[in-house]
């Protein structure tokens, strides 16, 4: 599932999708490309409303395998059923085939991010994986393809 962010913030969209994933009973690996960006998401998740707390940890700790949501830059380390990629993090086709859900969030204001998402879309769909493209350009999420 590709999420083209134009009006929504990445941390808000991630929080919503992570909440739904946990409700579905899935563990999630949230993969980014840089430590600073992951630190920002970690902080945003810790400072959310108490009633919407999302249990998570940063990659590299002693309990990585037990984390319901694991933030990191490496391979899936928590037996996740879902993978969320942000900031241009790559998703391998073989990796995606074994998951219940893959979320790719990308900044619609950044041409490089849009181009990278197109490359991922082509690779995943060429491998026969079903994909959906969602955009918030109209102010609310709309399914545009898939």
Describe this structure in words.
The chain is an alpha/beta fold and 146 residues long. The protein has a single domain, classed as 3-Layer(aba) Sandwich (Rossmann fold), CATH 3.40.50.10110. The chain is built from four helices and eight strands. It has an eight-stranded mixed beta sheet, sandwiched between helices. A hairpin with a 6-residue loop joins strand 7 (133-135) and strand 8. The longest helix is centred in the C-terminal third of the chain and has 16 residues, at 111-126. It is globular. The N and C termini lie close together (9 Å). The mean pLDDT is 94.
Number of helices: 4
Instruction: Detail the poorly predicted runs.
Output: none
The level 1 CATH classification is Alpha Beta
User: What kind of assembly state do the chains in view correspond to?
Assistant: single chain
Could you report the average pLDDT, rounded to the nearest whole number? 94
Total domains = 1
Classify the helix fraction into a percent range: 25-40%
The CATH topology: Rossmann fold
H/E element order: EHEHEEEHEHEE
Looking across the biggest beta sheet, what order are the strands in? 3-4-2-5-6-1-7-8
Strand count: 8
Instruction: Please compute the radius of gyration using only Cα atoms.
Output: 14 Å
CATH superfamily: DNA polymerase III subunit chi
Set out the fold topology.
Layout: E1 2-5, H1 10-23, E2 28-31, H2 35-46, E3 57-58, E4 69-72, E5 82-85, H3 93-97, E6 101-107, H4 111-126, E7 133-135, E8 142-145
Parallel strand pairs: 1-6, 1-7, 2-4, 2-5, 3-4, 5-6
Antiparallel strand pairs: 7-8
């Amino acid at each position: 599932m590709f999420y083209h962010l134009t009006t929504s913030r990445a941390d808000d969209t991630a929080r919503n999708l992570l909440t739904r994933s946990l409700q579905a009973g899935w563990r999630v690996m949230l993969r980014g490309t840089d430590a600073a960006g992951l630190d920002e998401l970690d902080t945003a998740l810790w400072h959310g409303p108490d009633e919407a707390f999302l249990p998570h940890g940063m990659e590299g700790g002693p309990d990585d395998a037990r984390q319901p949501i694991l933030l990191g830059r490496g391979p899936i380390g928590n037996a996740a059923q879902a993978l969320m990629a942000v900031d241009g993090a790559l998703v391998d086709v073989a990796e995606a085939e074994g998951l219940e859900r893959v979320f790719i969030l990308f900044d619609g204001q950044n041409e490089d991010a849009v181009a990278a998402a197109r490359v991922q879309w082509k690779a995943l769909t060429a491998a026969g994986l079903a994909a959906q493209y969602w955009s918030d350009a109209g102010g609310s999420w709309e399914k545009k393809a898939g």
